[in-house]
C-alpha cells in the first residue's frame, strides 16, 4: 500500500483481468467473467461457493426420497397404500432461500391426484453456519405468519400449510389431517382458550411426532399452481403496460396490504411459533436484507428475541447493522475516495433521520407488512387478479412509515425513478394510491389511521427514500445522493467535505479507509485466483434446477 506526499492513501494500480476469459456460475443469475465478477457489489467468492453447496443439498435430498414419501403421508394422514410421487430433480424449483419439490399423492380410493410442494430450507443461504438456529428462526417466523393469517385474515388467499418440521425434527400437522379424537381435543382446547380470553393466538397446528427424519427443515404446502393461475413474474414484462391488468393487480395488492394492516401491533417484530401451538409477536423483525447480509458473515445486530416499542431504537439498530456489514464486507467500496463517501453518507443519514420518523407514531401502532414483496411471490389469473400469496417468511410488524407503493409496479428499479423513468413511476404511484384509498373505505380496520395519507406524506417529504435505504441491501448511499441530499444541499459534496465528515464515522477513520482498501485488493486477488483455477478445472453448475426468483 503506497501513500502520497501528504500521507493520504493512494489507490493501488488495477490488475489486468482481460486475459481471464473463463466464466463461473452463480446461484441466481447468469455465469460471470472475472471482470464482471469484480464489478459486482456482492461477495462473488461466497456466491460461487453456494453453487456446489446447493448441488450437495440437492443430492442429499434426492437420496431421501423414500423419507419424503413417508413424511408426506404422515402429515396427510394417509395409509401406506397411497401413492406418493416425488418429482425429478429437473422439476424442482429454487428460490433464494428454499428448494421447492413438487409432490403428487393419490389415495387407493380416488382418481384425483393431490398436488403439493415440499419446501426445504437451504441452511447455507440462511446464515446457519454463522448463527446456529437461523433456519429454525426463519421457519418459526414463517409458520407463525401462516397461522396468524389463517386466523385473522382468512380473506387473504395463501397456500394451505399441511405440516412442517424444524431442523431438530419437531413435527407439527394441521389439525384437519389428524385423527378424530385429536381434532376433538384441539377443538375443545381452542374453545377454552377463547372462553378464557387468552391474549395469545392459538394456532391449528399440533405436535405429530414421526420416526422418520428429513435432513432439512421443511414445510408441506398446497401447490397453488393451476391451469388458470401462474406466477405474476411469468408474464410481467408482456403485460405490464396493460391498464386493466395493472388496475386489477393494484387492487389485489391494496387489499392484501389493508388486510394485514387491519390489526395494529404494539411492537416492531415478527411472529414466532411456539411448541405449544401458540403464536406471539416476540421475534426480532426478521427482514430479508438482514438474513442475506448475515449469511455473508455480517454480525447479528438484533438478538432473536428483541422487539421494539419505539421507532428510534429500531432505526438505530438498522444503521448499526449496515455499519457492521460495511466494516466486514471485502468489496463494499471501489477505492479510498468511495470509502470516505460511504462513511460520510452513513453519518449524514443518521443526522437527518429525525426528519423521517413521524412523532405521532414513534411509539406505534405498527403494522404488518410484506418486507420482500415482488412479482415472484404472487399467483394471478389471466386478468392479474391475485389468486394466492406465497412466501410469507419476511412478514414483519414495522413502522407505518415503511408502507409504500410497490416501486416495481412501474417496471422501474429502485434507482431509476429519479432519472428518465420518473414520470412513469409517478403515474403508477398516483394510480395505486387512488385505488388504495378506495379500498380503504370498505375495510373495517381496528384503528382510525389514514394509511394512504401517511404514504402520500412520506412521498412528499422524501421519507420513502430514507426508509427504502435503511431496509435495502445496498441502495442507501445511492438513494441518499439522489433523493435526500438535494433537499438539504443543492450540490454534491466535495471530496474534502466527505473526508471531513467521514472522520466522525469512526475515531480511527483513516485506519478504516486503509483497511478497507487493503481488503478490497486482497479480495480482487482471490477472485482472480478463483477464475484462474476455474479455467483449469472447468465450470461449476447445478443440474436440473428451475429458479423461482
From TrEMBL:
InterPro entries: AGP_Transferase, Kinase-like_dom_sf
Region Disordered: start-end pairs: 1-21
Name the record gives this protein: Aminoglycoside phosphotransferase domain-containing protein
Organism of provenance: Rhynchosporium secalis (Barley scald fungus)
